[in-house]
Amino acid sequence: MCFFDQHRFACGDWKWGHFRQHCNREYRTGETCGMKLIMQTVPVSQKCKLCDKIDTKQRRRLAEEDRISRWNREGGRFRASIDRSYDMIKSLDREIYDLRNERMRKLQAI
């Protein structure tokens, strides 16, 4: 039961921080007993890396949708580009789905 800092992100996720104090069970320098307890929680104003990746992919998806709607308004001459953008949207949807599942697995692994 060694003590560590905990970093809490704006999205609600958290990660372990620096080691702070040994417990009574561990006497060796540089070693921990394996059981982690929170010494203090440090609020972080930004989102975690997973949420940043999800937000980035959602912005890219929205940009592709805007491009498709613009091309359709211009008369639909860019059929190959539109098809390629639809493929990109499907790919981004799959990546966003995988990232959200990874985030949920992390939250449930506690």
Walk me through this protein's architecture.
By secondary structure, the protein is α+β, with helices and mostly antiparallel strands. It contains two helices and three strands, in the order βββαα. 50% of the residues lie in helices and 21% in strands. Strands 2-1-3 form a three-stranded mixed β-sheet, with no helix packed on it. The longest helix has 30 residues. The model has no long low-confidence stretch (mean pLDDT 89).
Summarize the SSE layout with pairings:
Blueprint: E1 2-8, E2 14-21, E3 36-43, H1 49-73, H2 79-108
Parallel strand pairs: 1-3
Antiparallel strand pairs: 1-2
Helix pairs in contact: 1-2
Please describe the structure with a list of short key phrases separated by commas or semicolons:
110 residues, three-stranded mixed beta sheet, 50% helix
Summed up:
This protein is an alpha+beta fold. The chain has helices at 49-73, 79-108, and strands spanning 2-8, 14-21, 36-43.
